[in-house]
């Protein structure tokens, strides 16, 4: 059997299947409630961007969806099964997650980093199978990291480093991928580079993607669905054109702005005027 | 356009990875990581044999090796196996335990300053042991006690109790490396304050016995110390080696480790427990031999390459450091110093040299 990164065939029902769902989740750090009774469904093959002002709970929500944070009430459901009751290793074969600023130990090479993505598929006896090797090689070449494979991760530029981490997530071979602000600290051209990579993961590899993003214009350009959050509440959800309106920017971001069509992609583009209130 | 000249040093040559596959087994073999333990083990055997030959009745290296395999003359047999071997074996085992323990803790805490020394485990074990010497034994019993059961058991209990306290105080739904180190340093200070208080109210004989114990010494060690230590290591070292794969993922921090399907809380608890148990049994056998667990893993990672201290190589290098230091202390130096002083004197400059020479920063 040859290993591929291809997306396994899923059901052919007319309605897209729900892969990951939050059901009435309440998310809190200690006493401090960040998100309360929130419902959310991510359907198979969707590309969702979660946007909102700082502290709105979007990263917290993503952490809960990736079972890094346990809801104090409600539940997260992965493929119809409560994620808290699914062995974490099983989850890791279906759901990949890239934290906001992941840490790579010093001296670790790109090839080793990407190889760790195979961890959920390995055992103590089977540490490096032919499948692992093939998948890692393909993940490296797909993210254009093959030439840098023997470099230490800490010697890479910010953009290259983010590619390396995405390569690891790709090697994990999960249908679902959650990314927490993957473009933080990157200059504009590398932001585009990373988001193009994520968009290709979605389009060519059929990955279901949810990403937390700060840049509204980039979110509108790459995602099929936008979710706008404020104070832990989902204010709007829909296509970028439905969500990104002048009224919503006022309401969610306290921002007076014009929304015009993006001359490149024809998606809505925000031109800020001033902060209000 | 201006031409730029690269002033960057060439990248460190990465370790060659080769693939090993036998039936359902598969793994990656790295030449440097494989070579280091082999070379270290050979040197360790030679240094140990050399050490067993040295003393009031010198025995040649070849005769020592012959005796060890059971083909020496009866006098040499007695001197080597009954008088000198236990000391060396305890030294090897103590070094091994400390090396592996340090490698585990440093990898888990992602901090090269973390070790049983800095985490206060030695301090806790010392406080308990000194309490036994000062309150329990009295100076007359101290010599006997060193060979007896009370002191090692107290040290073991003190070390494990301290570790438990550290773990409970550092636990926040998981253990953060920094928090662990900070709590450990705090508890370590408490432990050593307790030692000082006990020493000030003890009589001079007890204080002297306690001080020798506190520097870590292999003097007067017999098979009575070697066997329990060997048994403990036979249990703990395989577990540590089995943890290696999970450690490689824990190194990424909790979030990434959990995302990769590791049960982080459980894995952390097992790693810390094994590391602490290794440190505690070594302290019970030889007193707190300082610096080995701190220095050796950092030396090992620089020699072997890679992103974390190799466990087996750290253990063997630890053994080599302790046995080598003991040999120096007994032969070259005019006065027979406790081994703990020598490990610090050799270990510290070597680490500094590696730090100055290498391009790697401390973290």
Give a brief description.
With 277 residues, chain A is an alpha/beta fold. Chain A has helices at residues 58-65, 88-94, 110-116, 130-142, 158-171, 188-205, 216-222, 240-243, 246-253; strands at residues 18-29, 32-43, 47-51, 73-78, 81-82, 95-98, 176-180, 208-212, 225-230, 233-238, 255-261, 268-275.
Q: What coarse outline of chain A follows from CA principal-axis ratios?
A: globular
Which class do the helix and strand fractions of chain A yield?
A: alpha/beta
Beta percentage of chain A is 25-35%
User: How many strand elements of chain B?
Assistant: 2
Structural class by secondary-structure content of chain B: mainly alpha
Q: Give the DSSP E fraction of chain B (strand runs of 2 or more residues).
A: under 5%
Mean pLDDT of chain B: 83
CATH architecture of chain B: Orthogonal Bundle
Q: Which strand order do you get reading across the main beta sheet of chain A?
A: 6-7-8-3-9-10
C-alpha end-to-end distance of chain A: 61 Å
Strand order of the largest sheet of chain B: 1-2
Biggest beta-sheet profile of chain A:
6 strands, mixed
* Oligomeric state: heterodimer
| Percent range of helical residues of chain B | over 70%
Helix content of chain A: 25-40%
Number of helices of chain B: 15
Uncertain segments of chain B are: 1-14, 138-147
CATH superfamily of chain B: ABC transporter involved in vitamin B12 uptake, BtuC
